[in-house]
Structures are given as C-alpha cells and as structure tokens.
Amino acid sequence: MTNPAAGTPAESTPTTTRIALLGAGNVGAEVARILLEERDELTERIGAVPELVGIAVRDLDSPRTVELPRELFTTDADALIDSADVVIELTGGLEPARTRILRALNAGKPVISGNKALLARHGAELHAAAEAAGTSISYEAAVAGAIPIVRPMLDSLSGDRVNRVLGIMNGTTNYILDQMDTTGASFDDALAEAQRLGFAEADPTADVEGHDAASKVAILGGIAFHSSYTIDDVYCRGITGVTAEDVEAAREAGYVIKLLGVAERVADDGDPGQPSGVNLRVVPTMLPRKHPLAGVHGAFNAVFVEAENAGELMFYGPGAGGAPTASAVMGDLVAALRRSVAGGPGVGPSFHADLPATSVDGVRTSFSLTLLCPDRTGVLSAISTVFAEHGVSISTMQQRDLPADDQYPGQRLAELRIVTHQARNADLVNTVEAIRGLDVVLDLRGLIRVENPS
Amino acid sequence: MTNPAAGTPAESTPTTTRIALLGAGNVGAEVARILLEERDELTERIGAVPELVGIAVRDLDSPRTVELPRELFTTDADALIDSADVVIELTGGLEPARTRILRALNAGKPVISGNKALLARHGAELHAAAEAAGTSISYEAAVAGAIPIVRPMLDSLSGDRVNRVLGIMNGTTNYILDQMDTTGASFDDALAEAQRLGFAEADPTADVEGHDAASKVAILGGIAFHSSYTIDDVYCRGITGVTAEDVEAAREAGYVIKLLGVAERVADDGDPGQPSGVNLRVVPTMLPRKHPLAGVHGAFNAVFVEAENAGELMFYGPGAGGAPTASAVMGDLVAALRRSVAGGPGVGPSFHADLPATSVDGVRTSFSLTLLCPDRTGVLSAISTVFAEHGVSISTMQQRDLPADDQYPGQRLAELRIVTHQARNADLVNTVEAIRGLDVVLDLRGLIRVENPS
C-alpha cells in the first residue's frame, strides 16, 4: 500500500474517501479527533485517504469535549451527506437520524451508526434500504460500547448455532448493583454515587428501568438468531425494586444480582399457546458467583454467548465512554472502507430465520423468594403443597427464626428462603401469586430470577 | 435469500459452492459433520449451497471421531483441491500443508486454515500469495480455538491502536497451573492428571515448553501491530520450572501464576541497541488475582487487549476441542463465502507498519524472587546495595525467619521475598545474577515475572 506521508516513490497516490460525521457529542468528537490525528496510519490501513469533510451539528456554538477545526462544522446535514462517500451517524434519537441515514443508504453510501434506539425500532427498514442499494449499515458502537460483539456475532459465529446470549449491557446499572454488592449501599445511595461520578445521568430512567439494555437485546438478539426484533419484543424490568436486603440475601446464598439482557432460543414444549422461538428480556437476575459474568465489576459490560459448537464465550470491555465507543465506530468505518477499496460491498446480517419473539411465560427459569411466616406447625406443609400443585419443585429451602416484631404481636416469626428448580415462568408466577394469598404468609419479598443455579 | 429446502417459489435456485476439506482429525471431522448436518441453514446464511465434495486423508482406513460417508474420502489431495471452489486445511504441520495451501491460493481459491505452526512460520508467504491472486486466507481457528479474536482484531479494532495483547493461549498449561493453584499439586502431578483427563498429550513438550503458545503470539502479534512475525521472533519460556512453592508464594502475595503470551509495543527508551518496536514473548507470569485473566480457569483460554481508545477488552472461551475449533473454522468459511457470493474478495490483514520484533532486554517488567539468607546484620544492606547499583528499585520485601536447616549448620536462616518495581528486563537479569553471587545469598528461588503489580 502507498504511504504519502513517508513519500514512498513509484506507487500511485491513494484515492480519497470523503467522510461525513453527523453529531459532535462525546463519541462524535472523539471520532473526529481520531480521524484527524491518525490520518496517515488510517490511510495505510484502508488503502485510501479518509478525509473528514464536515461535521453536522444543531448548534455551531455548542461547547465540545474535543477542540476541532471550526471550518468543519455545518448545520446543513443533508448537503454534507450528499457531498460524502460514507456517513457516520452519532446524533441519537429517532428523527432526523432515520431520515438522514435513509438518505445516505438510498444513495448507495455506507453508513456507520451508534444509534441503538433507532436500530431497535427501525433496524429492519434500515437493513432493507442498505441491501436494496447494495451498500451496508454497521453499528458495532450501538451494542456494549467498545466491545467487539456485533462483528464477531455476524462473522465469527456465522457458522455456529447460538442458543443463548446473556449480557451485562448497561454500565450504569452494573455500577449501581456492584456498589450495592460491595458496600451494602441502598439503591438510592448507589444511584446518587453513580450520578456524582458521572456514571449515571440526572434523569437515570432509561438506564435503571432497563430501556437502554432492552434496545441492545433487540439488536443483538436479531443478529444472533438471524431474525428481526424491535424493542417492543423485549420483556423489560429495571433495578429500582432491588433492595439492599435482596443483594445481601443473594450474597449469602453464593449469588450476585446483575441486570441481564437475555436472548435465548425457546423450544416448543407442546404448549400450543407458546410457539418455539426466541425470548428476549431484560431482568434483574441472580447469577452464581463463579459464573464469568459475576466478575464483571463497575461500569464494565460483558456479553456471554452459548453456542452449539463453540461452547461458552465471553466478550468483556468498557460499555460506554467517548473514546471506547469511538473505537467501535472507527472499526466499522475502516472495515467498510477496506471492503469498498477492495471492490466489494459489505455483507449485512441475514434475517432469514425469522424466529418469533416468544412471551416470557414459556421461558424456563428459577425463582428465589423470601417469605415471612409465623413459626408454627403446618406452615411448611401449606407452602410446599402450593408449589406441588403448580408443578414447581423446590431446589433449596432455608429457614431461620426471627426476633419478635411489633407488627405481628404475639407471634413467633420465621423467614423462609426458597430457590426453585427450573420451571415455566408462567407456572412460577402463578405459584408466587398463590403463595402470596396464603394465610400463613405474612410477607413475600426478594422475588428474583436465578440463572444457572448451582 | 432463497431457501430450496422450504420450497420458496419465485426465487432462483442458489448456486453451489464446492468445498474441499484436507484432514479428518478431531477438528476436521467436526467440520465435516456440521457441513453435512447444517447444510440447509448454512445455505440460507451464505446465499449458496455449501457442498462438501471431498475429504483428503493419508489413510482411508484410519478411525474417525465422527461417522462420515465413506465415498467422501480420498487420498488425492491435489485433485480434490483442483475440483473445489474453497479449501479448508486442517492437517497441521508444515508440509505438505504449505504446498497444498499455495496450490489453492495461486488458483484464486479462498483458504481456511487452523494450522498455527505453518502460519507462524510461513504466514507472510501465504498472505502474499492470497493477495497476488485476489483471494483470502483466514485462520480464526489457529489462535485460541473457538474464541473470536483474529476477526475482531482485524475488523473491530482496525481503527484503533493496540498497545498490548496478553493471552492465556494454551489450555494444557492453564489447566496444569490452575490445578497447582487450586490443589497445591506439584507440576508433575498436575501434568499427570491433565494427561489422564486428555487435556495433555503423552508428549506434552509443545504445550509445557510454550511452543504452541509462541506460534499463536507470532500470528496474533502480527495482526495486532500490522507487522509480520514468525515464531523465531518470540522469546519463549515454558512452565516446567514452576514449582508448588512458587505457586504458593504467589498466592500468599495475592497473585496467580499464568503462562502468558504477550505482544506489546516497546517505546524507544534512548538505548541505541534497543529500537522501538514490538516485544513478543511467552513467559510464566504472576498476575494480580483481580486481573480479569486471573479468573480464567481449567483449560479455558482468554485474550486481553489494551488499546488506545477501546481501553481494556477481554475475549474468553474454549481454546481447543473438536467442535469449538470447528466453530471457528465454520465462521471463517461462512464469512468468506458470503463475501464471495456478494461479489467482493476478502480483505486480508495489513502488514504495512513493519514494526521490528525487539529483544526482551528492553521490555519493562517486574520480577518476584525469593532469597534464602543467613539471619544476621548486614544482609539486607548488601542485597539492597546490589539493587541500587543496577538502578532497580524494590517494591515490596517480606522477611520471615526459617527453622534451622541441616544443610546450613549453625546458621539462623531467613527467607526474603522481593518484588521489584518495573525496570528494563536486562537490568533485572543483571541484578539477579549479581544477587546470586553474593556471599550472603545461600539460595535464589522462585524467580518469576510480574504483570500489573498491585
């Protein structure tokens, strides 16, 4: 390859590729910096000069995290797109991002995007537009920040059969749960600490309610199972209800609570209302301490993949941040440009399998729950009977006596911690409802799913 | 895409791609099984029918781990290659593998290989042949078995600057060291156990002496640093000298001993004999227990990557085994065929940077060592002086009194455990030699490198 900077003689000057950048936030500004600082090295890798021709922003005067040449900025995104060979979209939100990406794709220009909300809503439309125009849309940055997971799933696992994807895909919630686990903090205190350190936003809803992770599950689940999903296909529960007591009880039992994004193949279990397909969910989950995902601390992300032949794989790294996410954008960009220099179009994901998203009802899982009961004969028997009637068997039950409580005068109290064997989610939910209705159950707390019970 | 199995009407029948498989060992047999069993699904993913046209073996009557149709086998590898569109080489060894791969590449046929010894010796020649013929050679299976690391390094990190790669790239040695760590076993006992369980071969030399890992470091280091290396560029030390006492001492200090393959950028430190470049090495290394690689147990592999923008990434999974390694082969195959169906050639790695492999002398690292000394005044001072004279500073020093030893009659004995700060490897080696020569040092044991001292 030619290196103009080194003045290599006798080889032809490489062509120039014109790059349009939409958005100059945290990630966009880092992408611009890398394109400007690493131009010579990138030219070597791509075989063409990557020229950043402009950065479209809403407000020319907004402060930026990186100092960038003023003359690159424009408010006319459409003109910038029309003047470029490849478009990087890092604005976020549904519109005008969707319309602009379609404008580029329809003109046959490769697009790199980090827009998880858009991809989890209109991914199918964007892929169809790319395929129709013989170009590509890439979005490594949309899932788990810097961690290479979209590309390995598309290419490296393209000859295998994925059975399950388990991911810690949101750094804010992992930071909060890790703080609760290591310091015994309450959810509110851990959230406040995360906000103070910049790991959580002033309005943390999208993170703590699981919506951010749900977008990523929809995108990654689609790629893993060669099907197309939206965020509406994802059953989503956040971590606002996880208490310090839940975390403590999990620790005592050898577990840690993580907010897991899960996409898993669900087999036909003979229930006509429950087709085989893929269940997509985001739920606080107890994981055994020895599971590789249990060791993912702080704001780090990781994705654990169970495949038929490869077995168990894990991909670990920073799930957010300007420079790490920019690295993912740059990987997509260089890969797309190298392919385009080599003369071939990109190869998009295949969605031929079209597996339906299934209800969480049919998923086989385990529950952990804690019951407050009077300490007298007949209680255990009443509770066990309800489990048996619903076809749910108990894996472990621990009982401990509690001190007297003014709220329940004159009663000796006991706490029962129960972990069930795997059963259909719907059966577990019905069991829990029936248990809750028993006279001998004063309170039911700490209800949480368990993966891979040991 | 068309699915002939589903009888989709109105679309054209997909073309057929003729696949030649060389070798039917553990991995080859699994690849053949997957190609035959998953033909319909693979057709959907590729957009063409992957037809296994033959399997070249040395002996038609050798027993196989998977039952395969007899009529597929042939001993005429050349004729099989000539009849195919794509070639999978899983025979191992340098020849005839090299000549056969060149035959396929020179004819413009994509090659998938899992042959680490060949790639670590003749990789540059094979890449050049692929580029000259406008085709590709892929070898995800050659490094860390099922773990997607070659493809992510080539594509996902193509826009970043890798600073260091640390890998547990040999399952046999990781199993042995993990056994020594968790059970206190000696090297010999752990090796025997590994052999009994099939994790180590009858002749374990290539594994325990680090040669297998060294091949992988040469291959992965070349990709990470856009340069071309051979196994001769890798400084290699095995684990046969690691004792139960070393493992125990490391544990007491909060470390675990792993056989690490390392490829790291070495800056110009002003020493004219030591150019900036990349140091490649395989060495038993103490890692802090909290490092993500410290939690990689049994025969699992993992590769830890430190990149300028992405930060710290880890890729974890099974490093060997028939089906897992076959998954990596199949990923390369499907990716190559999808690109070829889409009309573009593969894009090979770039080796433009051409960074020299540097001697281990200039690498900055830390040493841990244990000294047996008489317990009297002046000893500490004599030892400290030697360190100071060589410009090596001491990070921690722990002394404990030892019981009397008949080997050293009439002396009170003490054991000193020293961990140094980071210093040039050459200075550390000279320091250790000088220490060894001191009168007051009766024995020097447990000399081992330390990464990321806490």
TrEMBL record, chains A, B:
Residues of the active site: K216
A molecular function (GO) term: NADP binding
Cofactors named for this entry: a metal cation
Listed GO biological process terms: methionine biosynthetic process; threonine biosynthetic process
EC number: 1.1.1.3
Positions that bind NADPH: K116
Domain ACT: 368-449
Pathway(s) served: Amino-acid biosynthesis; L-methionine biosynthesis via de novo pathway; L-homoserine from L-aspartate: step 3/3; Amino-acid biosynthesis; L-threonine biosynthesis; L-threonine from L-aspartate: step 3/5
Protein's name in the database: Homoserine dehydrogenase
InterPro entries: ACT-like_dom_sf, ACT_dom, Asp/hSer_DH_NAD-bd, HDH, HDH_cat, HDH_CS, NAD(P)-bd_dom_sf
Keyword Oxidoreductase: yes
Protein residues bound to L-homoserine: E201
Family statement drawn from the similarity comment of this UniProt entry: Belongs to the homoserine dehydrogenase family.
Domain of life: Bacteria
Organism lineage string: Bacteria, Bacillati, Actinomycetota, Actinomycetes, Micrococcales
